[in-house]
Amino acid sequence: MKLYIKYMVSHCCKLMVKEELNKLGLKAYNIELGEVEVDGDITPELFEKIKAALLKQGHELMEDKKSIQIEKIKNVIIEMIHYSDEPPEIKYSEFLSQKLDNDYTYLSNLFSEVTGVTIQQFIITHKIERVKELIIYNELNLKEIAYKLHYSSVGHLSNQFKKITGLSPIFYKALKKKRRISIENVLIAKPVSENA
After folding, report:
1. Which domain CATH number covers 133?
2. How many domains does the chain have?
3. Secondary structure (3-state) at 9
């Protein structure tokens, strides 16, 4: 039986879900972001136990078909942007359509209806979060980041970054460094006396 789980967006989440299911005596396999298959049938009582166990860990068991589809869309995008070394060679719309075996127009309309944002806005937001992460890691320069995330140029990345964050990528990187320096200065500053 396949279970659909909301807020299961990282590899750590996958491990935690597997552990919770094991505690309940269920063998989990084919664990993907947002979904997991378990052996056998699940009684209504066991379903409620699973629901409660996952909720304690910050996850939610989903039953509604629309919610399940939205979560699948989100998880494909998150996997594609945050966990894939190479973005797809085709357009994101084609990739989502193929991956989810559904017409992109249907997926797009459903996503917008339920979440209030377009799939494109969701993708851009996640790409910018990934750019921030890569800037902080300081392992790639902006040209390499632009290439990795399929931006047409550093200028395109910079414009989108500024539109979303209000900052240029270079300024964002400088803020990170300044923050680091500020923390170092706080550590060597003299303690303030309690009477002051």
Report:
1. 1.10.10.60
2. 3
3. coil
